[in-house]
Design a protein that fits this description.
Blueprint lengths: L7 E5 L11 E8 L2 H9 L8 E4 L5 E2 L3 E9 L4 E6 L3 E7 L4 H10 L24 E2 L2 E2 L4 E8 L5 E5 H4 L16 E11 L9 H9 L7 H15 L8 E4 L5 E2 L1 H10 L5 E3 L5 E3 L1 H7 L6 E2 L2 E3 L6 E4 L5 H19 L8 E2 L1
Parallel strand pairs: 2-5, 3-5, 4-20
Antiparallel strand pairs: 1-2, 6-7, 7-12, 8-9, 10-11, 10-12, 13-19, 14-16, 15-16, 17-18, 18-19
Helix pairs in contact: 4-5
The chain binds uridine-diphosphate-2(N-acetylglucosaminyl) butyric acid.
């Protein structure tokens, strides 16, 4: 079938995951058209083969051998699709690079995505873990998306409620994992924009740069500078961003910890619970800058695990387990991994 003629066998995924793990896929198909997804569904053999959907591969930890059909989302295109009194509605295809898309919206004079500057990955991957940084999550600017459903064969439109967004989570990490494939995402970017400067780091950077009334581009520049100072560039050092979620604990548990560890870093949540800085817990457990085999803990941000050369998925899991176990021993707090494991 012509729509499947780019299907290939035994393909290296090393350049398709930012951790740089040298995994190989049994079957690999670059997706440039929704017709290919239909063809996969209609194919007797492919329809029953396990699937792995890959965008920018920036939130993935792969095993050495991926015995599955890897669908690499390469759909392209971005445009202003509608506007009303309050919003510009901007749509981008799943395969667009996230940061390039953010930069393009800012260049068009549409603000709203600036706090999410420089996050690695693609537009189609962004809703899956509800990407977030510096006080903004994708759910704050999300309008709707279109996805292909492998079970029904339909293209479905999903609004914010359908996506069940939560902290670094959505329905695409849960019941629709590998079943619904995001094709494009539409963002509602506000016409009456206000900068979101709740993060002390951002305010401090702008103050030091002498910026009085920041534009969205100023905020984007601040965030790029802050990220570059703290986080490793995946083009240079393999990594998958924050490796653990910041754990949420009850007020009682947090107060107890605070008594024992007065320097504990925690943030009150609207629910009355507290989010703890996992980076702080890992640093206190002695792991910041340390290494176990081929995988290390980044020296400037303990929440980021880095590939120190030829790391395998098993090496990454081993270090993650050691860290989880040490943090649990010291603080009785369970760390939950953030990336998807395959
Ligand atoms: N901290 C330490 N030691 C460390 C790292 C952090 O003590 O090695 C403490 C510091 O007190 C620091 C606080 O933790 O002030 C928070 O650190 P940071 O501002 O770097 O943010 P984070 O909580 O570690 C989260 C997100 C990041 C996002 C930043 C900024 C998660 C899992 N991570 O990190 O998202 O960029 O906030 O908003 O929520 C990602 O998800 O991949 C990611 C990079």
């Amino acid at each position: 079938m012509s729509t499947l003629n780019t299907l290939s066998h035994d393909v290296s995924l090393q350049k398709l995951n930012t951790f740089g793990i040298d995994a190989r896929a049994t079957l690999f198909l670059p997706i440039v058209d929704v017709a290919q997804l239909r063809a996969v569904r209609d194919d007797v053999s492919l329809s029953t083969t396990p699937r792995l959907i890959v965008g920018g591969g920036s939130n993935l930890v792969l095993s050495d051998h991926i015995d599955a059909l890897v669908l690499h989302m390469c759909l392209r295109g971005k445009a202003l699709t509608a506007e009303d009194e309050d919003f510009y509605y901007v749509t981008a295809a799943a395969g667009e690079n996230w940061h390039a898309f953010v930069t393009w919206t800012l260049g068009q004079g549409w603000a709203g995505l600036e706090n999410l500057s420089l996050i690695p990955g693609t537009v189609g991957a962004a809703p899956i873990q509800n990407i977030g940084a510096y006080g903004v999550e994708i759910q704050d600017v999300f309008h709707r998306l279109e996805a292909f459903d492998f079970e029904t064969g339909d293209v479905v439109v999903m609004d914010k409620a359908d996506c069940a967004f939560a902290y670094r989570d959505s329905i695409f990490k849960q019941q629709y994992r590998d079943r619904r494939v995001i094709l494009n995402v539409t963002f509602a970017l506000p016409k009456r924009w206000m900068p979101k400067l709740a993060y002390a780091d951002v305010e401090k950077w702008l103050l030091q740069a002498g910026v009085q009334a920041p534009t969205a581009t100023d905020v984007s520049e601040a965030i790029i500078a802050i990220r570059q100072a703290k986080l490793p560039d995946p083009q240079v050092i393999g990594n998958a961003g924050s490796f653990f979620k910041n754990p949420v604990v009850t007020a009682a548990a947090r107060n107890d910890l605070q008594q024992r560890f007065p320097a504990l870093v925690s943030y009150l949540q609207p629910t009355g619970d507290y989010k703890l800085a996992a980076g702080w817990l890992i640093e206190q457990a002695g792991w910041k800058g340390r290494q176990l085999g081929t995988v290390g803990v980044y020296e400037k941000q303990a929440l980021v695990l880095v590939n120190r050369g030829n790391a395998t998925g098993a090496d990454v899991r081993a270090l993650a387990e050691r860290i989880r176990s040490d943090v649990k021993k010291q603080f009785a707090v369970e760390l939950e991994v953030e990336p998807n494991f395959y």
